[in-house]
Amino acid sequence: MKHCDQATQKWKRDAIFRACLASASYVAILAAVPAAAQSAGGADTLETIVVTGTRIQASGFTAPTPTQVIGTEQIEKNAQPNIFTTIAQLPSLQGSSGTAVNTFSTSSGQQGLSSFSLRGLTPIRTLTLLDGQRVVGANVTGVPDISLFPQLLVQRVDVVTGGASASYGSDAVGGVVNFITDKRFTGIKANVQGGITTYGDNAQYLLQAAVGHNFLNDRLHVQVSGEYDHEDGIPPGGFGENAPNGRSWYHATTLVNTGITNNGSPQYLLRDHAQATGYSKYGLISAGPLQGTAFDANGQPFSFLYGSNGVPAKDASGNVTGCYIGFCLGGDRSGAVGIGASLQSGIKRLDGYTRIGFDLDSNNEIYATFNMARVTSNNQPNPGAQKSGLTMSCSNPYVPTLIQQACTANNITSFKYGTDNAMLPNIHVNTSRRQMRAVFGADGKLSLGDTSWRYDAYYEHGEEITDIRVRNILLTNRYNAAINATLLNGQIVCADATARANGCQPLNIFGGLAPSPSALSYIVPDKGPFQHTHQQQDVVSLNLNGEPFALWAGDVSVAFGGEYRRENYRVNADPYGAGITATNTYNSTYPADPVLATAGSNWFAGNYHDGTGTYDVKEAYLEINAPFLNSPQFGKASLNVAGRWTDYSTSGTVYTWKIGGTWDTPLEAVRLRAVMSNDVRAPNLSELFAAPTTTTVPSFTNPFNKTSVTILQNTIGNSALKPEIARNIEAGIVLSQPSWLPGFSASFDYYRIKLTKGISSLTADQIVNFCFNGINQTCGAFNFNPASGLPFVNVQQFNLASIFTEGFDLEGSYQFDLPDMVPGHFTLRGLATNIGTFLTDPGIPGTIPQQTAGTNSGATPHWKFLMTQSWDNGVFSFNLQERWFTDGVIDRKYVVCQTGCPVSTGNNPTLDNNFMSGAFYLDVGGTYSFTDSMTAYFKIDNLFDRDPTPSPQTNTGLDTNPALYDIAGRTFRVGVRFSM
């Protein structure tokens, strides 16, 4: 299937084809994919057809792999500031990441990252291409950021909904998303757009412009485009239950644990307004004889109002009678932190793109493309810095006198304490991604013997620089030293003399009084966590395609080629996170402090680490399409086979293949297609060469001699990882524009994916005990008798997991005119994906496979739909779009019951309500053409302002799922497009 990549690249190579592509590509695709977004005349004038999903280019060729097509018209009608959103709405894409996902994250580096996920297999198993070519990753996992792509010149996006590794290589397990640009654009076009939500936030504006012109008697083709997009994002709500700017859907919906497992009632209850019992906004004594004493903003103690009429047990465990484990319902909820994260990251993206092509003759071109882009994003992962289980001394001079007296009366010297630290500034994460990418290539035709061959050769160099800066975040050890205050010579100071000698300033965490500037700068220094990542990608590729001979049923098409790719990354982090070493780049601006751990991991969150890694890949492929049937009685049929040899410098050689075919049956416009493939995902740079961290773990049990030892736990990459292997099967039927219903196309395709050797993470205990129990793969990851130093366990990832998913896709489109009734052109299109099974087996003894199909707290609902209807009379147009997915459950592991429940277990806990409703969203839009060159448009997303359904957790985090539900609410957009 890597042949598809080269087929896409051949679009670029074939100058004649590119000239026709803008007007006729969709009809060509429609012949192979029935529900293409558009149709146009002149398809029979094309000499070749290019279909993403195969490397074959041949007149009349149809690929066996289903492909969904989103064209310029649909992209424009959807009127999104980022084309990512339009594509991610396709039902076959589940679990894509965008600006509303990862906003709770501080350390992942994925804030504001927009990457596609096909079939719910996560972005790392979906290959995204630009003109059939790879793009340097925007994260060490290797996934690109669509925000960095040049978008105004995108002519269409092909989504291959099946394995394509034989054509494109690694990562194409779930499929391929291929952005295809207009390489022969001439003229000027521009787009100006603005938008805002009904709540007055996420204000957005977009500026785009492109110019294309031919020089030297139309032999030199130059295109330049640029765009700037600014999206404010959606701010956090703060503490309590108030969602930002008047949204009313947040209710701290939580799965509360009754602790009851065997009396016939459910262990878990689905409830709103959960109240944590271990902390409050300005502080709460959470255990012991003073339990239930809270503090107001001025530091004055008062009796905390527990929900559920709860009464503190005042024991060492901190139980509250009448409540649940860790939670009550109702009461004082001012300290809830779940809605305190940004609902959507703010983002700014700036992109510049240039393509220069020169025709050597009418069939051959040399070209170069240059892309420079920058995306910055910002988010707040949580308010304050919530702390639970702190041990506070009764003699701390910040403890109010009444509490000190109560300590004396109850004969205690300390108490357990929890606080939101609401007096501290909120954490902010700022991420910057810069991409520089250049491609130099040639494409065209050459003759070898009696055969005309199309070729494409190119070299690509890409660099990605990512900087992450976190502000307003605690240094944990300094915080612990600062809150441990004492009196010295009548002054309140830090109790730890070493900390005091190194600048420690005491901090009062009883109440909400703002800390002194010196105390704040001590625990929250100006230089927060920082990570600088530099990734490089180099690709050399050569692809050829021709019809060297014929069989009885027609010409045999052959595509073959090879590719070399090198991936490299280097990451440097601040010494407080990575470790204070002589070689750390940033030691001069992060002064040493004996209070801090020299091994790093000193921050409350955002502990980044240094690392580096490189691998290279050599590949060769061959694809053949052989027609074997061509008769009026039995129709036309062809066999499509491909194989790829791939050699990774890290994991050795792997082979991928596909075998499929199409049959144009004697029944008019009816085609059958089927394909089976063996696909791979090679381990990425992060999995192979993860930046190492080391922690000391006391009292670790050695199962081999039943002793307890102190070990070093090294979290590192695993260079011994092998590629994941997937077996894909697809089979379907296509009805393509029958004479009895012109303009109508439909398809049905079944898919089945079985992935083995999946890469999964294990704990130190699991690694050692797996080896003890006979799983040899983990035995090389630890040593209890090293020649020197402490025993160690390397916490790594291993090829242990598996995933099985199956379902089917439905697609249909109908285009028609009603000149006698309503002048204008009508287009109807619908797509649907059913996920019948999505079974994940972590490969860990004692666990059972998890079924997540229909789990609406994740990314794989049973059904996901996208429907569009449009009418266009050349001056006006009106468009409707419906997006919806079906009802589901919180988690398939739960046993639902109210009474007579079975014994609740870890694998199958009992729950009283496991229902999550689906969601229906109606979007409307329209255009008005002032002239042939200027069009105004509007778009309203989520017209009915449908609130998200709660996606309860077992804590008080954000109780909805932004991967499925719209959390922005009704959004208005208007704009003007210009072209000439």
Molecular structure report:
By secondary structure, the chain is mainly β. The protein has twelve helices and 49 strands. The protein is globular, with a radius of gyration of 30 Å. Among the domains are: 244-343 and 386-419, no CATH class; 684-717 and 762-795, no CATH class. The chain has a 22-stranded antiparallel beta barrel. Strand 18 (346-361) and strand 19 form a beta hairpin. Residues 1-48 have low confidence and may be disordered. Keywords: Cell outer membrane, Membrane, Receptor, Signal, TonB box, Transmembrane, Transmembrane beta strand, Transport. A motif (TonB box) lies at residues 48-54. It is found in: Cell outer membrane. Belongs to the TonB-dependent receptor family.
What order do the helices and strands come in, and which of them pair?
Elements: H1 2-13, H2 15-32, E1 67-71, H3 72-78, H4 83-88, E2 126-130, E3 133-134, E4 154-160, H5 165-168, E5 175-181, E6 187-197, E7 204-215, E8 220-231, E9 254-257, E10 268-271, E11 274-276, E12 284-285, E13 293-295, E14 301-303, E15 311-312, E16 320-321, E17 327-329, E18 346-361, E19 364-379, E20 387-393, H6 401-409, E21 414-419, E22 428-448, E23 451-471, H7 476-483, E24 485-488, E25 491-494, H8 497-501, H9 517-523, E26 530-551, E27 554-573, H10 575-578, E28 611-631, E29 635-648, E30 652-664, E31 670-681, H11 685-688, E32 693-702, E33 707-715, E34 724-736, E35 744-761, H12 764-772, E36 782-783, E37 792-795, E38 797-818, E39 822-841, E40 850-851, E41 863-872, E42 876-885, E43 888-889, E44 895-896, E45 910-911, E46 915-916, E47 919-929, E48 934-941, E49 971-979
Parallel strand pairs: 2-5, 33-37, 44-45
Antiparallel strand pairs: 1-4, 2-3, 4-5, 6-7, 6-49, 7-8, 8-18, 9-10, 11-17, 12-21, 13-14, 15-16, 18-19, 19-22, 20-21, 22-23, 23-26, 24-25, 26-27, 27-28, 28-29, 29-30, 30-31, 31-34, 32-33, 34-35, 35-38, 36-37, 38-39, 39-40, 39-41, 41-42, 42-47, 43-46, 47-48, 48-49
